[in-house]
Amino acid sequence: MANRFPVFAKERPGAMPLPGDRTVSALTKPNVLERWSEDGAGVRSLAIDDNVITMFDIIGEDFWSGGGITAKKIGAQLRAIGAKPIEVHLNSPGGDMFEGIAIYNVLREHPQPITVKIMGMAASAASIIAMAGDTIEIGAASFMMIHNCWVMAVGNRHDMAETAEWLAPFDQAMVDVYTARTGAEGKQVARWMDAETYMSGTVAIERGFADALLPSDQIKVDENAKAADREINEIRAMELTLVAGGMPRSDARARIKNLKGTPGAATEPDGTPGAADTDLMGALARLAASTRS
Questions:
Q1: Domain 30-221 falls in which CATH fold?
Q2: pLDDT digits (tens, 9 = 90+) for 40-52
Q3: Any coiled-coil ranges, and where (predicted)?
């Protein structure tokens, strides 16, 4: 079927602000990670050329895998590719929003055109990165999600008020970038962010967040990658759930690492999830339930 949406490359919006103090992390919510496990896990490029940067992971350094997409890594890849047009293949649940802003700023400085291809999902911080594209293509079955900056904070009402005040400029910066890209009114974009809005490929195009549908023959589902994505994503989501329940992040990681290190808590020899993963997920679920109670 012919693509009924034309491609319109637009001027990249300006740089976004980064906090001087990065002690506060802006994170992807557990429910977003769960949504990515259902809709985005294992979605990959069918072919990758030498001018392609792939982002098929969480944004920011990942404690659990040792991977993650960072501005430092993207900057190194851009230098290696040189002054050529770039394709960014994107399928990510987001992660550290401030790292996403840094990656966006690195990409927007590239002197050649950038095409962003959303394969699976561009959620939270990943949707910010997508806005660096001169042209944005999205799969018909893919999703883009935008929301307000989400952090975990503790303290009294004065601390919470201070945190809200500190976050406001970054939410406004996102509104400004989305507005510049889409042409929508800022108040409407803010309402979409307040509602944690998921947009299908066609809706993203209709609202101006993307320019064209990505042909389906450029996307594949890698079953091994899908299993690996889901496995590590369960761990990430559980960590955030435990922290949201009041457990310090270091304690949550220690508890999960302890469970992962128990007999039967590893993957099968070929790297695919087996009964051991079910045992681990059950143990983590019980741990989360005890924390909430």
A1: 2-enoyl-CoA Hydratase; Chain A, domain 1 (3.90.226)
A2: 888 888 878 899 9
A3: none
